[in-house]
Design brief:
about 15% helix; elongated; mainly beta; 3 strands; 1 helix; about 70 residues; three-stranded antiparallel β-sheet
Amino acid sequence: MVANQAICAILEREQNSLSPAAFALTRTDYEEDTYGATALSVGRMTVASRLTQEANEYAFAVLKFTATTSTAS
């Protein structure tokens, strides 16, 4: 879940990713930096079960590369 949420956040900025109904996801300490079409995001996410109340914190990093095409003359 954490990987899916982190990847969706960097790829689909305009859309909010839906989390499963059984879990509460909270993103903390989030940083994102871009250089052209390349982007890096790092942060932490707390995943809490709504059924058992168990919670764990995970760290993530996502690096997005976008290939650029060049035209040869």
